[in-house]
Amino acid sequence: MNKTSEFDIAGSAVSDMRVAITGAAGSLAADIIPALLEACVELVCVDRTKPAKDLGLEWHICSINDRDALKAAFVGCDAVVHLAGIPLEDEWERILENNIDGTQAVLDTALHAGINKVVLASSIHATGFVGIPADEAVPADVRVRPNTFYGVSKAALEALGSYYHDRYAMNVICLRIASRFSEPQNVRMLSTWLSPEDAGRLFIAALGPQATGFRTIWGVSRNARGYLSAEAGEAIGFHALDDAEVFAEQISEEAESNPLAAESQWDRKYLGGVFSSDEPPLQPYSIDNQEPHQTEGSNK
Ligand SMILES: NC(=O)c1ccc[n+]([C@@H]2O[C@H](COP(=O)([O-])OP(=O)(O)OC[C@H]3O[C@@H](n4cnc5c(N)ncnc54)[C@H](O)[C@@H]3O)[C@@H](O)[C@H]2O)c1
Fold first, then answer.
1. Mind giving me the DSSP string for 62-123?
2. Where's the NAD-dependent epimerase/dehydratase domain (predicted)?
3. Cβ-based neighbours of 111, under 8 Å, separated by 6 or more
4. Closest Cα to residue 180, out of 172, 189, 188?
5. Whole-angstrom Cα distance, residue 192 to residue 297?
6. H or E segment to which residue 20 belongs
7. pLDDT at 41 over 60
8. What average pLDDT does the structure give for the chain?
9. Helix or strand or coil: residue 10?
10. Terminal CA-to-CA distance of the chain, rounded, Å?
11. What is the CATH number of domain 18-299?
12. SS3 of 192, please?
C-alpha cells in the first residue's frame, strides 16, 4: 500500500501495521480511526460496546478486564492503542477497575502477546495541580500532580507504562491529552485544544518508529496561547497544524453571556482548570454544543 496521507507525516512508517485499539467505540476513537485507516493501519477494535455506525472493522466486544478476550483480540498485532476507560471523574471503585486494573490487563496481555509498542491515553489531569507558568512552556515530562481520582488513574497508567518499559523493554508512549474537541468550547481551550485532525497526527506519530522507549507527550494543538511544550511531540514526529486562535473571537463573544465559556480563576492557575478547584465537578458541564459522548473534554 503506497497511499500518501496528510496524517502519515512520518512517511509510510505505520502503513500495514496491525493495531488493536481499545475504547474503539468512544469519541476519541471516532476522531483517530479515520486517520489511522487513511494511513493504512489495519485496526482490531476492542470495546464493551459497538458504535452506532458500523465501521466494517474487526470488532471484539469485551471488557478490557477480560484477559482471555483481550488475548484473542491481540493475536498478530504489532501495537496497541489503549483508550478504554472512564474519561472523567467518578467513584474510586469504578476508576480502579476500569482505568487502573484495566490498563494493567492491557499492558500485561500485550506483553504476553509479544507486542512491544503500546500507546496509552493519559490526560492533562495527571498533572492537574501543576501551576501555569507566566512565560515558559510546561515540559511534557513534568511530574504528576493529579487533581482527581481520574487524574490519579492516569498517573497510575503512566507508572504502569514506565514499569513495563523498564522491566520488559516495552515501548510505551503516554499521550497527556488536553482538550480534544471538534472546536474549543471555552477560553481555556484556546490554550489546551487538541483538534480531531491533530489527534490523528498525534496517534500516528506515537505508533511510528521515532516513538521509542518510555515517553510522555502533550496531546495539544499548535495554539498561539498554548503553554504546553511541543518539544517532546516534535521529537517523535508529531507536528500539530491547528491553532485554536481561529475561534478566539467566537469564544470571547460566547464568554460574555455564557459563564461556562468564560475563563475561571482555576483556568488561569492550574493545568487542570476547574478540575483543580475546591469542588471538582463530578459530571461535565452542560454545554449546548456537545460531542456525541460527554467526556472530560466537556469542561476542560
Ligand atoms: N476526550 C478527551 O478530551 C480526553 C482527554 C484526555 C484523555 N482522554 C482519554 O482518552 C480515552 C478515550 O476518551 P473518550 O473521550 O473517547 O471517552 P469515551 O467515553 O467516549 O470512550 C471510552 C470508551 O471506552 C469504553 N470502555 C470503558 N471502560 C471499558 C472497559 N472496562 N472495557 C472495555 N471498554 C471500556 C467505553 O465503552 C467507551 O466506548 C480515555 O482513556 C480518556 O481518559 C480523553
1. S-TT-HHHHHHHHTT-SEEEE--S--S---HHHHIIIIIIHHHHHHHHHHHTT--EEEEEEE
2. 19-184
3. 164, 168, 170
4. 189
5. 10
6. strand 18-22
7. yes
8. 90
9. coil
10. 39
11. 3.40.50.720
12. helix
Does any ligand 1 atom lie closer than 6 A to the CB of residue 98? yes
Residue 298 pLDDT more than 50? Answer: no
Domain locations along the chain: 18-299
pLDDT digits (tens, 9 = 90+) for 236-268: 999 999 999 999 999 999 999 988 899 888 899
Query: Distance, CA 135 to ligand 1 centroid (Å)?
Result: 33
Q: Is 103 in the pocket of ligand 1 (CB under 6 A)?
A: no
Residue type present at position 229: S
Helix/strand/coil (H, E, C) string of 155-187?
HHHHHHHHHHHHHHCCEEEEEEECEECCCCCCC
Distance (angstroms) between ligand 1 centre and the Cα of 82 equals 9
| CA 31 distance to own-chain centroid | 11
DSSP code, position 273 = G
Q: Which of 233, 211, 235 is nearest to 223 (CA)?
A: 233
Nearest CA to ligand 1 atom 7: 123
Q: Are 60 and 69 in contact (CB under 8 A)?
A: yes
